[in-house]
């Protein structure tokens, strides 16, 4: 039964039984030359079809083909008048620029590189003209193109990270692919700044993963790239409110890794410049998250040896926090004292300068919380053998606000620094430091002469007591030396046994 049913179905036509072959065989008039010609035409047509198929699948991926008309990316925007076709041409050019070339060899693929650069320039001009409409396929294509060109793994750093001043003298390294990257960054910046940009559509593709990869690019050793990234990240923070907490958290993680693990990062300065303006825009009262960022991220940034590279930006951020809430002054000063350098005079100079800026914004209540440990440290700086550190510490008294704080708390502060001033007068080697010390002592005498005299009496008593203790130690050592000389060792076999009351006692015991 089954064989009868199958026999009634139409048979499949084989290649030998196809109409074309049957006609060719029946006519029997086709020459060898004609066959060769037909074969060439067929291969040419098939190759063109393959090209069309490749362009449609690469230039226009399947996720972007919906509602997009295929347009030759080699065309100019001036050659296309229809708005829809311009949008399609815009997407096709973006996808054409997704091919990345090795820019270390300028002679390799030179023509393709120049064509890609000209295409990028055309895209920037088209966006700046304001005639583009960023639909979802356009946003998707632009984000894909930027990700393909920008997101990359940097080679390992071979340069050592030393002290701040030595690191500043190192020559920057420039990326050979900046020839193209600059235009890609310019296009991304214009996209973010576009007035009619639909943020709901843009944030779908410029998501947290995209932002995180942008932050990773701050590791670039090319200062031009970091400067562009700084502007772009600042615009993203200002325009995409949904990304703000994520950006703050990600930057905190970068700082944690830098401070506590690697002490290597090229973009700390630029990140702090971004947050300098971000902190100034914080609403009052400050959130606990923002205070944690100050205490856990910014203050520990004083620890690395390379703090000199970014200290100016770090100081600005810290001062912005205190300007928002003066109660943060005492935690900041405690942090400075915690990370105060003991053997690096250049860092010490930076810390004293920052301390002066912080004290200028410190209220009386906050100053009284930290004035004892603070002026113990300043007293050590007044006695520093490095003349620049000693001079900078003396010049704190020239600040009117700091002098006012000292004057109102002189009963506590003067005893802490008086001994350092007297020791400077007696033994400091630098004449400029001696002159500054004399000026401060004169100023203190005019401020409260009775207190200065009391401090002088106390210093004399301590000095005489220390002299008496030193004399007792000297006499004791002389007696020990005399006793050691009078006791001659006795040799007994292979063991040398000292003779004396103490030795005999120890042996007896």
Tell me briefly what this model is.
This protein has helices at residues 2-8, 19-27, 32-58, 83-96, 110-128, 136-150, 164-168, 178-193, 199-205, 208-216, 223-239, 244-262, 268-280, 288-298, 307-324, 329-338, 345-360, 364-382, 387-394, 400-408, 410-427, 431-447, 449-486, 501-508, and strands at 489-492, 495-498. The protein is an all-alpha fold.
Low-confidence stretches: 12-68, 158-167, 490-495, 501-509
Largest sheet: 2 strands, antiparallel
Using only C-alpha atoms, the radius of gyration works out to 39 Å
Please provide the count of β strands: 2
User: What is the terminal separation in angstroms?
Assistant: 122 Å
With helices defined by DSSP (H or I, 4 residues minimum), what is the helix count? 24
Q: Architecture of the domain at 56-155 and 163-239, according to CATH?
A: Alpha Horseshoe
Using the coordinates above, name the CATH class of the domain at 56-155 and 163-239: Mainly Alpha
CATH fold type of the domain at 56-155 and 163-239: Leucine-rich Repeat Variant
Query: Would you tell me the overall average pLDDT?
Result: 81
């Amino acid at each position: 039964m089954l064989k009868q049913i199958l026999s009634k179905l139409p048979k499949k036509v084989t290649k030998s039984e196809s109409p074309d072959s049957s006609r060719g065989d029946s006519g029997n008039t086709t020459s060898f030359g004609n066959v060769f010609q037909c074969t060439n035409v067929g291969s040419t047509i098939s190759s063109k079809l393959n090209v069309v198929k490749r362009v449609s699948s690469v230039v226009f991926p399947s996720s972007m083909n919906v509602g997009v008309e295929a347009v030759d990316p080699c065309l100019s925007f001036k050659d296309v008048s229809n708005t829809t076709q311009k949008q399609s041409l815009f997407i096709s050019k973006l996808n054409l620029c997704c091919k990345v070339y090795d820019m270390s060899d300028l002679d390799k693929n030179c023509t393709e590189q120049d064509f890609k650069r000209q295409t990028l320039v055309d895209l920037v001009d088209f966006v700046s003209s304001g005639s583009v409409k960023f639909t979802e396929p356009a946003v998707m294509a632009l984000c894909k193109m930027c990700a393909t060109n920008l997101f990359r793994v940097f080679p390992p750093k071979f340069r050592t990270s030393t002290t701040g001043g030595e690191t500043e003298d190192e020559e920057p390294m420039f990326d050979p692919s900046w020839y193209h990257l600059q235009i890609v960054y310019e296009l991304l910046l214009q996209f973010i700044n576009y007035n009619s940009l639909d943020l709901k559509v843009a944030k779908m593709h410029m998501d947290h993963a995209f932002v995180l990869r942008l932050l990773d690019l701050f590791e670039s050793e090319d200062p031009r790239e970091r400067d562009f990234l700084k502007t772009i990240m600042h615009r993203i923070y200002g325009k995409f409110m949904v990304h703000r907490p994520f950006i703050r958290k990600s930057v905190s993680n970068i700082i944690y890794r830098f401070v506590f693990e690697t002490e290597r990062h090229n973009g700390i300065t630029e990140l702090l410049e971004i947050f300098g303006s971000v902190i100034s825009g914080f609403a009052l009262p400050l959130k606990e998250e923002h205070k944690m960022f100050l205490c856990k991220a910014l203050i520990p940034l004083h620890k690395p040896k390379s703090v000199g590279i970014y200290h100016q930006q770090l100081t600005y951020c810290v001062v912005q926090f205190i300007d928002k809430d003066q109660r943060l002054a005492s935690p900041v000063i405690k942090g400075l004292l915690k990370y105060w350098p003991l053997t690096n005079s250049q860092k010490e100079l930076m810390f004293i300068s920052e301390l002066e800026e912080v004290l200028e914004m410190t209220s009386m209540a906050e100053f009284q919380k930290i004035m004892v440990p603070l002026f113990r440290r300043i007293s050590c700086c007044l006695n520093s053998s490095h003349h620049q550190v000693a001079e900078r510490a003396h010049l704190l008294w020239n600040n009117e606000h700091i002098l006012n704080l000292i004057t109102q708390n002189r009963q506590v502060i003067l005893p802490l620094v008086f001994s350092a001033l007297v020791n400077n007068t007696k033994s400091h080697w630098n004449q400029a430091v001696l002159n500054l010390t004399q000026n401060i002592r004169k100023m203190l005498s005019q401020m409260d002469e009775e207190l200065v005299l009391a401090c002088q009496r106390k210093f004399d008593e301590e000095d005489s007591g220390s002299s008496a203790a030193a004399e007792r130690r000297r006499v004791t050592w002389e007696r020990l030396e005399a006793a050691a000389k009078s006791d001659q060792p006795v040799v007994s076999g292979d063991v040398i046994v000292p003779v004396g009351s103490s030795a005999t006692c120890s042996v007896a015991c």
